[in-house]
Amino acid sequence: MRAPLPWLMLAALYILIGLLLSIVPVVGPLLTALLWPALAGGLYQAARMVDEGGTPGPGVLLTALRDPTLRGPILVLGVPPVVAFVLGALGFVLVLGGATGAGLATGSDQVAVGTLLGGSLLLPLLAVLLTVAVVVALLYAIPLVMFDGAGPMAAMEQSVLASVANALPLALLSLLYLVAAAFAAIPMGLGFLVLIPVITGAVYASYVDIWGSPAD
């Protein structure tokens, strides 16, 4: 609420960059996954600027990529999302390919079809677990790299430990986010222009609660 217009602009730019990256043939989704921590780091930087009484401009979104000391570590944090995407895509292709083959199965192949069906039902659960693992590893790793100068591996370890120690409030935050995201998606996704700044501020505030701010 201290800087509504800059936040709306940053949210729109964040969404636009994601859309532009996603439509790049073949490598687009991989680039999106790789650069997500860097763009999220830019949003956290904006939150810190507002917290300190400043006003973020559009360039803050690329802070981590423009800073030579941050670029390497933040790109390393992009590896887990890339791996998760690749594993998810491979799982989808295997299930889809198996389903195509199962369409020709008869007689004794019924067991194989049943196994395939079980695998296809298990895939969404594995995807959810993989997504949760990546989020837990990166939730606080991004601001730790941005603000504390932590190495990527140490930052991910600290993020996991902090997430486990604060599992209940983070679970509640996740539930509230999912409900809010459902409503945000209704008006052609325009609600995310508000939800992105809100969830960024919430996670940044929780980071400050755990690790403190520069003024502490």
Overview of this protein structure:
By secondary structure, this protein is an all-alpha fold. The chain has one domain. The mean pLDDT is about 90.
Cα end-to-end separation: 23 Å
Question: What is the number of beta strands?
Answer: 0
Largest sheet, in brief, is: none
Q: How many independent structural domains?
A: 1
Helix content: over 70%
Could you tell me the mean pLDDT?
88
User: Quick one: overall form?
Assistant: globular
CA radius of gyration is 20 Å
| Alpha-beta content class | mainly alpha
Give helix and strand order, one letter per element, not per position: HHHHHHHHHH
Low-confidence stretches: none
Which percent range describes the beta-strand content? under 5%
Structure keywords:
single chain; 216 residues; mainly alpha; 10 helices; 78% helix; 0% strand; globular
In short:
This protein has 216 residues and is mostly helical.
List the SSEs and their pairings.
Layout: H1 4-22, H2 28-51, H3 63-66, H4 68-76, H5 79-102, H6 110-138, H7 141-148, H8 152-165, H9 167-184, H10 192-211
Helix pairs in contact: 1-2, 1-10, 2-4, 2-5, 2-7, 2-10, 5-6, 7-8, 9-10
